[in-house]
Amino acid sequence: MAAPAMPCGEEFHPEAAIVNYFGLGDMLGGHLDDMEKDWSKPIVSISLGCKAIFLLGGKSREQTPIAMFLRSGDVMLMAGEARECFHGVPRIFTDPENTEITPLESQFSDEDHTSFLDYIQTSRININIRQVF
């Protein structure tokens, strides 16, 4: 997934993953992913569970962000100038009318997966894969 955003002639070497768990009422305030030594490498972000609003701002907090939905199964690539932009998740949708997880629910509808299904109906998991060095 990272290959299209890599500098010419370089390969992506994933070295770390951050897992964000969102439950009822959780959010992730505007921030920069600035811990990597080299910002020329992309971040691969995978969303699972409830739909969320993702805000992508600019290089300062004063710039008005662009809002977009992230749904279960979406993969987002943050690369280039986007690596230097503030971003956050102000809301996840946990009400049944707006979660948009029907395809995921249908895969885990048997009795063996009841606990997982109960969890994912009101939660969101985001996995960020990155090259640190």
Structural features:
single chain; 133 residues; mainly beta; Jelly Rolls; 4-stranded antiparallel β-sheet; Alpha-ketoglutarate-dependent dioxygenase alkB; AlkB-like_sf; metal ion binding; AlkB-like; oxidoreductase
Account of the protein in words:
It is a single chain. The chain is mainly β and 133 residues long. Helix content is 10%, strand content 34%. The model has no long low-confidence stretch (mean pLDDT 91). The chain has one domain: Jelly Rolls (Sandwich), CATH 2.60.120. The chain has a 4-stranded antiparallel β-sheet, with no helix packed on it. Strands 2-7-4-5 form a 4-stranded antiparallel β-sheet, with no helix packed on it. The protein has helices spanning 102-107, 114-120; strands at 16-22, 28-31, 43-49, 52-56, 66-70, 75-78, 87-92, 124-130. The chain has 2 helices and 8 strands. Keywords: Dioxygenase, Iron, Metal-binding, Oxidoreductase. Residues 13-133 form the Fe2OG dioxygenase domain. InterPro entries: Alkb, AlkB-like, AlkB-like_sf, Oxoglu/Fe-dep_dioxygenase_dom. Its cofactor is Fe(2+). One of its GO terms (molecular function) is dioxygenase activity.
